[in-house]
Structure formats: C-alpha cells, structure tokens
Amino acid sequence: MNAVITHLQDDSQARLDALAAISQRLLERCRANGASQAEVSCSEERGLNVNVRMGAVETVESTHDRGIGVTVYFGQRKGSASTADLREDSLESTVAQACAIARYTEDDPAAGLADAELMAHAQGEFDTWHPWDIDADQALDLALACEAAGRDADARIENSDGASVGSSASLSVYANSHGFIGRDRDTQHTIGCALIAGRGEAMQREGWYSTGLAAEDLESAAAIGRRAAERTSARLAPRQIATGAYPVMFAADVARSLIGHLLGAVSGGALYRRASFLLDSVGTPLFPSWFSIEEQPFLRRGFRSSSYDAEGVATRESPLVRDGVLQRYALGSYSARKLGLQTTANAGGVHNLAVSANAGGLDEMLRGMGRGLLVTDLMGQGVNNVTGDYSRGAAGFWVEDGAIAYPVDGITIAGNLKSMFAGIEAVGSDIDPRSYIRTGSILVGRMTVAGAE
Hints:
By secondary structure, the chain is α+β, with helices and mostly antiparallel strands. The protein is built from 9 helices and 17 strands.
C-alpha cells in the first residue's frame, strides 16, 4: 500500500460490551413479556466511501449505522421487530411489537431457536479486525492517484467511469435465551477503478479492484489503475466468433459465480420450497472424481470466518463436495427442520469455501485448452435454479494454439449446470483472493456459444 497506515485508539471491545449489555436487557424484557424463547442481534457499522471521476471529486460519504433486531417465540409462534433507536422507551416498544406480532401469527412447527446443545462454546479471533486510519482527504488522494495511473497508462483510454476508495468497520453481537452470546468485529477496505477506451460504438469499459480485511493487503492505488487500464485496452476491437460448441474457461474472478449457483441450489430455502435442481442430491456424484470444495470457517483473515453461525451454532470445517460427490446441504435450523434434517451451521450463509485445483496458472490452463473461449465478463441473470438451465451474455477472449488471440463480445454461453459441473476438466491454481469463495479459473469441456451466424 502507498497509503500511510496508523493505528487508531481501538475502542471496539468497549463498544461490543455496550451492545452485549443491550442484548441482555432486551432478552430479559422478552422473558418478562412471556416469550418462551428469544434472540437479539445488535450491530454497529462505521464507514467512509469516496468517488472521483476524470480527476474531480464526485462523492464523499461517511456513515455510522446501527441496528437492533428482536425475535421472540411463543411456543412455535414467531414475531420480529427492529429499531435503530437505543433509547429505553424505543427498546421497550420494539420488544412489545415483536411480542404482539407473535401472538397473532400461526404456529409453525419449524420455528424456534437452534437446539441449545449445538451452541458454540468457544469463540476465536481470526485476524479480521484491522481499522484503517484514513480520512476523506487521504481517501480522495488515493482514488485520484488510482484513476490518474490508469488514464496515463494508455493513450487509448480517453474516459473514465471513476475510481473509488471505501473502508468499513462493523461490530455485531448475537445473543439468545439459551444463554449464548457471540461477539464479532470485522473490517473491509477496497480500492477500485473503471476506465473507458475507444470512442463511439467502439468504446470498451473494464476495471479492476482490490479488497481486503487489512489495508496493507490491498494492491497499491497505482497498480490497480494500471491493471484496470490493461484490462480495458485488451478489450478494444473485439471480434465475433461463429456459433458452435466449444471449451469454455471461466477466469477466476467470474468462476466463483459457478460455485455461487451451486450454493443457491443446495441452500435450505430453495430445497424446502422444492425450487432447486439439486433436490435429493446428497451422496450423488455431481463433479469429476478429483473435485472437492471444503468449508473453512476458521481461516485467518477469511472474509467469512467465524466460530458460530447466525443462530449461534458452532461452525466446523467440513466438505461440501468430496471426490466429486455432494456431501451435504447448507442449512440453518429452520430449513433443516422443514427437511427433517439437522442444521449444518450455515444460518446466514457459508463460511469460506476452498475449491480444489488440479492445474497450474492461467497460462498453463490456456495451453491445455488449446482452442476455445476465455470468459472474463458475464452479463444477465439467465440461470434457472429449478431446472439448472444456464444462459448468460458473455465477453472475453478467443484462444488459439493455447494463447489469447483476440477479444470477443456480444456472445451468449449456454448449458445446464448439472452438465457443466460434470464437464469441468480443470480448476487452476490462480485463486482470486477477493472473495469468500476461493477458486481459480474453471475449464468446462464443452458449452454452446452463440456468436455470429
């Protein structure tokens, strides 16, 4: 990083103590109002976001948000209410509203807290708290330097969609009437730039960004700008390709969307609503035999590292896919009860996924593919979670003789996710570290590509 990083006086533990005290008072009020079970979520977030464009300041935004959520259960009747007002009368009113809602709802056999014996007994620190001592002027200087580096890198870049710098620090407490209380603190910082090359109908837009939990993990502003420029210029003068069936490689930063579609299909909500193409698929081979996905909730500086899920259930390292076979679904307690199963500690989502690699970096993968399409950008939402049918607009590069030949755009790639998963031939070691889904590039052996007639 080329920013000056200093250490703030850290009052985060004191603020967590205050949120924890509020949660305990609210739980006591819930009990006093007759609730058989209750849970409380308290959060606080502070942030700074700046945007510049063409060397001028566009926006500067400083935020300080907080929220209190109360959920009560009267038997199997549930009510929820929320507030951002910490005055005692407002907190009392929030509890009263939640209780009133619960008294008028229907019984739901799946409602209730997660089982008490599943609560996390130990809570770890995963190096996720790194406040950035940066003010608006410093953030603007970084954003301006990032954009300038990109615009200066190539004369063909004549316009910009701007550069931005963002920093946030969030504190959260979750407590329930089982006696569980969990405390989390997280930071995240981002620098990004989007540039425009060419003129008129020949214009191309592309960008780059760097994000991390600690400012020292970010790429320099100048490097981000230059990377954005390289990616933008590489898109100039795209060609069409003939419609046909080709090998398709998803670059690492778009490959994680494929894993995202898998997560959508194995999530509890989709399953109990029977809105998933992977119903009754646990124990079924979905991927090649060498392919695995591991959930890693205790990863140091992981974007979603935690000792417990959104219901206080203890997390654990476990495979989602092993040797190509789907091992389990991703469930919270409600969806688990609806399905007659047990929670997998995934209320609120999964906690860092690592996709196994069987190949080297991008260049090696391109050589192995030989001829086909490298996808670097996806557009549209053409994925049917019920059938698995997949059709999305795409842009990227045509590959010949194992090397990038020219850019392409205006194409559509199509298939079915089950066939695409089974047809994965390689996963690269070029992991994109900017997400909780850690995967390299993914090569699918054959997909339908709609290009020029």
